[in-house]
Amino acid sequence: MRAARFDYLEPRDLDEALAALSEHSPDAVAAAGGTDLLRDLRQQKRRPSLVISLARIPVLSGVRSADDGGLLVGPMTTMAALASDPLVADLAPALAEAAGHMGSPQVRNRATIGGNLCNARPCADTAPPVIVHGARLQLSSKEGIREVEAESFITGPGATLREPHELLTAIQLPPSGVAASSAFETLTNRKAVEITITSATAWLELEGDLVKGASICLGSVGPRPMPGPSGAAVLLGVEPTPERIAQAASATVLDASPIDDFRGSADYRRHLVEVLTRRALTRALARARRRARGGDIAEAQGGVA
Ligand SMILES: Cc1cc2nc3c(=O)[nH]c(=O)nc-3n(C[C@H](O)[C@H](O)[C@H](O)COP(=O)(O)OP(=O)(O)OC[C@H]3O[C@@H](n4cnc5c(N)ncnc54)[C@H](O)[C@@H]3O)c2cc1C
To answer: Of all atoms in ligand 1, which is nearest to the CA of residue 75?
Structure first.
């Protein structure tokens, strides 16, 4: 099948893109790397009158430190760039891992984090890391800028809080505590070019020997990335022994509502939630302890033996 005819615009700055989006909304669509969009256009699942490329708007790309010590990630940052960025590896290693696992080298060189979040599939690999790190998303339109929590952004398969005339213009990760870190675990039917069967992402912050903060998010086990508050609650304020981590992983199964499909049954996915959550918590804990001891970036990237 061929895409229906559309006009194509390549603005050089954000104001031009927002003006065009506003003028043609809801018949205009933004294009980032195109890895999801081109398929939808070819299959005529979408028939916009105007496609607005974001590729030539420099302010939308790249990762930099925010004034508060957090991270500012441009939505046009590719998976390859995220996976190899030293700031991301240090402050949000789960995000680097998720980006590095996606698709294939070709896909990672085109696919962007903004496209992954806005496309809003339950299996979107970068959504759980962004959520466990407590990110806020900046949505811009001709009228101005608003912020939403990453956790509430994706509302269902393919659905988000973004209005058609808005663009996602930044992903803001808050500063990481000195004793905090994260890890991403996934299982796929093969090692590349395959959608995740189930993923689990964990973030832990320590205070001395105790857990001060915990956050878990699951992929592909519900209509949207599924937060895991039941498991996180098991760990808050206690020493994260292997037994506690196993209890937390087991409790997280309550937060999943998987379905059967050709990639795996709901029962198998519940089993994976427990296994992958335990692994993610264990690696996040090891990294948080290393950061607390002042371990360097390279060590933090290595995870547990
Ligand atoms: C072979 C292959 C393998 C893949 N493997 C994986 C995988 O392992 N894991 C995974 O999660 N995904 C995977 N994907 C899906 C896809 O690559 C990702 O979702 C990718 O991150 C989408 O980014 P993009 O830049 O290509 O988005 P595009 O296709 O350009 O856009 C996707 C959607 O987001 C909208 N959009 C993009 N940027 C913005 C913005 N800044 N503001 C508002 N709206 C915006 C577009 O209008 C469109 O609706 C795979 C795809 C392919 C083709």
So the answer is: 41
